[in-house]
Amino acid sequence: MRLTFTPLNLARYLVWSGFALILIVAPLIFSKGAALSILSQIGTVMIFGLSYNMLLGQGGMLSFGHAVYSGLGAFFAIHAMNSSGIGASVPTTLIPLVGGFAGMAFGVLFGYVTTKKSGTTFAMITLGLVELVFASSLMFPSFFGGEGGITTNRVRGDALFGISYGPQIQVYYLIAFWLFISTIAMFAFTQTPLGRMINAVRDNPERVEFIGYNTQWVRYLTLILSAFFAGISGGLGAINFEIVSAENVSAIRSGAVLLFVFIGGISFFFGPLLGAIVGVFFSVMLSDFTPAWQLYLGLFFVLLVRYAPAGLASLILMLLRVKSFGLFHRIWKPLLAVCAVSLVGFAGFLAGIEMLYHLTLEAANGSIMTRFGQQIDVKAAAPWLVVAGLLAAGIVGYRRVQPGYYAVWSEVNAEIAAKQRGSAA
Amino acid sequence: MIKTIRPLTLAVSLALLSVAAQAETVKIAFIDPLSGPFAPVGQNQLKSFQTIAELANKQKWAGEHTFEVVGFDNKGSPQESLTQLKAIIDQGYRYITQGNGSGVGLALLDAVNKHNDRNPGKEIIYLNYAAIDPDMTNSKCSFWHFRFDANSDMKMEALTTYMAADKDIKSVYIIGQNYAFGHAVSRAAKEYLKRKRPDIKIAGDDLHPIAQVKDFSPYVAKIKASGADTVITGNWGADLALLIRAAKDADLKANFYTYYAVTTGVPTAMGAAGADRVKIVGNWLINGDIAAGKDIVEGYKKKYNDDYYTAQTHSSIGMVAQAIKQTKTTDPVKVAFAMEGAKFQSLNGGVMMNKVDHQLQQSLYIGTWSKVDGKAVKYDQENTGYGWKMDKKIDAYYATQPTSCQMKRPGA
Amino acid sequence: MEFTLFTLLNGVSYGLLLFMLSSGLTLIFSMMGVLNFAHASFYMLGAYMAYTISSVLGFWPALVLAPIVVGLIGALVERYGLRPLHKYGHIPELLFTFGMSYLIVELVQLIWGRAAVPYPIPKELDGPLFTLFSTSFPIYRGFMMLVALSMLASIYLVLTRTRVGLVIQAALTHPDAVEALGHNVPRIFMWVFGGGCALAGLAGVIGGNAFVTEPGMAATVGSIIFVVVVVGGMGSLAGAFVASILIGVLQTFAVALDYSLMTMFNGLGANITEATPGYELLKLTISQSAAILPFLLLVLILIFRPKGLMGTRE
C-alpha cells in the first residue's frame, strides 16, 4: 500500500473561504437601498476585469476592444432571455453561460486575426475592431436594438425554490455565485500549463518559440478563454440591468475596464478585484456627489501610472511584505505622518476643485455651494484662503516629512532584499 | 369642562395634523444628461423645470403642496438611467421626468412598468417631456407614462400641412441620423407628403451615422445633385449645426425644415448661416405667442443669460399641479387618473391630455430663423442676434394621429 | 461632372485635414515608439486656445501663438510625465497618455464650460473661393489645404535639410549612438513631442472653427487619426499623407454611392424584399456604411499588411 502525503494548503482554504464569506456577508453590511445595485455592479465588473487581466497582466496583450466579447455575450444573453424558442428553456440562473459561450464563439472568430501579432499591432487591431462593432451595432437595429438597446424582464420562466430574480438581493447572490466560480476558474487557469505559457509569452516570446511553442496559438487560446469569462460578465450585466445597448460594445467601456484593471494592479491576480471596487466607486458613486468625478478619476489614474505603475495591489502588498518581515514598526510612524500631511493637502485640493467647478459650471445658481451640508460662498475670499492654507500646509508638511519616510522605507526594503538574497543563497 | 376639552383638543390637533400632513413636497426627479456632449441642453432644461417649479410654488398651483425638481445625470445612456432610477426610487421619488433621447425614454418606460408591477403601492409616474418616438404612445403605451411634447409623427403632420400649402416646394430631400428617430422622420415624411402633395418629388433619402460625421459637404453635394429645393431633417446637436454650415459653404439654395434647431448649441453654431433658410416645427415659439410666457422668458434670461424655450416644463408641472389640486392628494395613481382627459391653459394656449394614449394635444408652430427686428422677432437666441419668426400656428387637431394604444389601467 | 469634381475636392481637403492631425502623431510615434492617445486632446486644446486668443488678438496672431502654447504644454507633459516612465516600457507610457486624454477633456470643460464655444471663421476667409457650375468652394477649405501642404513641406525640409532634422532622424533609429556622440537625446525627445503636439494644435486652430469647437471634439476624431497612422505605416510621414488622402477621398465618395448588396442582387434578377433573411445586411448601402470604412480598412491592413502602406516598423 502506498501512502502519499500531501500537506494541507491551509492558506488556500482560508483565503477562498474568506472570499466566499465576504461575498455572502457584504449585502448585510451595506444594506441601504442603492448599495445592493452597486454591489451587483461591482460583481460584474470584477469578472470582466479578471477576464481582461488574463490578456493584459498575464499575457502582456494590451487590448482596447475587450468590451466586444462581453457586449456580444450580453446581447446573446438578452435575446435568449427574450426568446420564446430554444432560449426559453434556459433558466435565468444559467443565462450567463449563454453569454459566455457567445463571447467564446466571437473569441474564436475575432481572436484568430487579432492574435497574429502582439504588442502595439494587437492593440491597434483591437481598437479598430471595437470601433467597427460599435459602428455596426447602430446599423443593425433588429439585433442590437438601435440606440435604445434591447430590454428584457429577468422575472421569467418558473421560479425554482421561489427565486424569481425580481428582488435585487437575489440578483446579487446570483452574481456573487458566478463571481466565485469564475474567480476559482480563472485562478485555476493561472496554475495550468497554458496559464504558465502565456506568462512566458508575455516575458520572452522569442524564447518560447525556441523551445517549441507556437506563441500565436497560446495567445489565441488564452483570448478564447478570456472572451468566455467576459461573456459571462456580459450576461450577468444583462440580467442585472435588464437592458443591453450599443454602449456595451463601445470603446469607452473597453477603456474603462483597462483603467480599472490598471488601477487595481495588473501583475497580481486579485488586482482587478480591487480595481473594480475603486473603479465603480469613482464612476458610479462619486458621480452622484460631485461633477468633478471624471477629473478625479483621470488624475488618480495618471498619478498611479506615474508613481505606482504596478497598481494599488502593489502598494498593499509592499506594506504587507514589510509587515511579514516584522519591520512594520519602523515605518508606521513616518508613514502615518506622510499620510496625514497628504490628507491635509488633499482636502485643500478637493475643496479648491469643487469651488472652481461651482464657479464655472453652476455660477448662475448663485455663489453658494452646498457640499456635505455646509454652505460655502465661492465668491468670498475666506473659503479660498482656507483652501490655500490647507494646500500650503500640505505641501510644506510633505516636504518636511517625506524625505524621512523615504529614507526609512529604502532602508527597510534594502534589509528585506538582503534577507531574501541571504536566504536564497 | 375637562370632558369637552379632551375631544376638542383631539379634534383640533387632528385637524392641524391633517393640514400639516397635507402640505407635502412633490419631488420630481429629472433624468437627463448633465455632463458630456449634451450637457448644455440638459442643464438648460433642468433650470427651466426648476424655474417653473418655483413659479408653481409661488402661485400655489397645487394648493398647499410644493414642487421640487432635482437633477440626476444619466450621461445620455439608457443603462446609466436605469441605475439612477434605482437610486431615485430608494430616495422616495414618485415622479420622474425625462426627454433627451427616445432610447433612454423607452428604457425608462420599460423599467417604470416593471417597477410598478413588482411594487404595488410604490408606483412612479413618468412625465415624458421630449422623447418623441411615436411607439411610446402607440405599441408601447403605458398608463404610467404621459407625453407632453408632440411626437415625431404629429410634428411631421403639422410640418407637411404647412409644406403642402407652399406651392414653391417641388422636390424634397430627407436626411437624418441612422437610428430609430431618423427612420421615423423619414417614414412619416414620405407617407404624409404622398398623401397631401403627391406631386412633390422625394429627391433623396439619406441616413448617416449619428454624431460621427464631421464633414457634411459630400451630403450637401448629393442634395445639390438631386435638385431638391427643400430639405427635411430630424438631426440635432452637432449633426444639425454642421449640416447647415456645410450647406451655406457650398451655397446650397434650399430651405431646411428641422425639428431641433432651437436646442441649446445649434443657434450659436448656425449663426448667420441659417438666416431665412432654416425652419423649425415645435410646440412653442417665443416670438409668436409670448403673452403667457413673457415674464418667465425674461426672468430666465436675466438670471441665467440663457433662453427658456421648453414649454413642456410648464404644461407638465401645471397639469400635475392641477390634478393634485383636484384630487386633494399627491398619490401618483390618483393624480394619473385625474390627468387623463384633463384640459389646461399652458404657454402655447389650451392643451389636452388624451385619455386613450396619454399624448398631449397642443398647437404646433412653424418658424423661420431670422434677424432680430424688434417687431416680428423680438427675442433672439443665445445672444446671436437671430431668433425664430413665427410663420404659422397650427391648431392641435391638425396634428392628431390615430393610435394603436391598448392601455391597461390599474384596477381595471 | 460638377458632383465628381467637388466630391474629389472635398475628399482631398478632408484628407489633408486628417493629415494635419495625424502628422504629429506619426512623428511622435516614429521618434519615441509611444502612441500618444492624448493627441486628439491637444487638437482640442489648440482649438480652444485659438478661440481665446482670437477673441482678444484676432485670428492671425492666434494662428501663430496657439500652436506654440500647445507645443510648450506638450513639451512640459513629456518632460515631467513621460520621461520618468521610459524605464518602465511602452505600456505605462501609453497608459499615461491615455489618462492624460481624460484629464485634458475635464480641464477644458472646467475652464471653458461644457457648451460649444463660438469660435468663428475670420471674415477675410469666409466666402466662396470660386464657383464652378453652381456649387461654390469655400475660401476656408482652400486655406486649410494650403496650410496642410505647407506643413508637409516644412516638416520634410526640416527633417532632411537642417542639422537638427538629421540629428532627429538619427535618434529615430540609433538613440544610443546619437547620445554617445554628445547630443542630448532626452531633450530632443521632448522637443519632438512638443513639436508633434504643436502640429496637433495647429490642426485645432484650423479645424476648430470649421467644425464645432466643443468638449466632445477630441473623442470624435480620436480613433480616426489612429487609423491613418496605422494604415499609412507607423513611422512613415509619407505613408500618413497617402493614407489620409486615401481615407478622405474614400469616405467622401462612399457617401455618394447609394448601392447596396440588395441593388446588386436585384440587378442580377433576384427579388429581395423585407421578408428575405439577412435583409438588414443586404439593404445596407455603401453611403450608410461610409463612417465605418476607415475601421474596416484598419482591420484589413493589420491582417494582411501589418507594416502599413509605407511603414518601416511595426
Question: How is this structure best described in words?
Answer:
The complex is a heterotrimer of chains A (425), B (412) and C (314). By secondary structure, chain A is mainly alpha-helical. Helix content of chain A is 72%, strand content 3%. Chain A folds into two domains: 31-315, ABC transporter involved in vitamin B12 uptake, BtuC (Orthogonal Bundle); 325-424. Chain A contains 16 helices and four strands. In chain A, α7 (168-191) runs antiparallel to α10 (215-241) and α11 (251-264) packs parallel to α14. Chain B is of the alpha/beta class and 412 residues long. Chain B folds into two domains: 23-150 and 291-361, Response regulator (Rossmann fold, 3-Layer(aba) Sandwich); 153-282 and 363-399, Rossmann fold (3-Layer(aba) Sandwich). In chain B, the strands form three sheets. A seven-stranded mixed beta sheet of chain B has the order 7-6-8-9-10-14-15, with helices on both faces. In chain B, strands 2-1-3-4-5 form a five-stranded parallel beta sheet, with helices on both faces. A three-stranded antiparallel beta sheet of chain B has the order 11-12-13. Chain C has 314 residues and is an all-alpha fold. Chain C has one domain. Chain C contains 13 helices and two strands. Chain C starts with a helix and ends in a 10-residue tail after the last helix. The chains are: A mainly alpha (425), B alpha/beta (412), C mainly alpha (314). At the A-C interface, α5, α11, α13 and α15 of A face α4, α9 and α13 of C.
- Number of alpha- plus pi-helical segments of chain C: 13
Rg of chain C is: 21 Å
Number of strands of chain B: 15
Overall spatial form of chain C: globular
What spatial form of chain B do the alpha-carbon principal axes imply?
globular
* Separation of the first and last Cα atoms of chain B: 52 Å
**Percent in helix of chain B:** 40-55%
CATH top-level class of the largest domain in chain B? Alpha Beta
- Class of secondary structure makeup of chain B: alpha/beta
> Can you say what the CATH homologous superfamily of the largest domain in chain B is?
Response regulator
Whole-angstrom Rg of chain B = 23 Å
Cα(first) to Cα(last) distance of chain C is: 41 Å
User: What's the number of structural domains of chain B?
Assistant: 2
Order of helices and strands of chain B: HEHEHEHEEHEHEHEHEHEHHHEEEEEH
Q: How large is the share of residues in beta strands of chain C?
A: under 5%
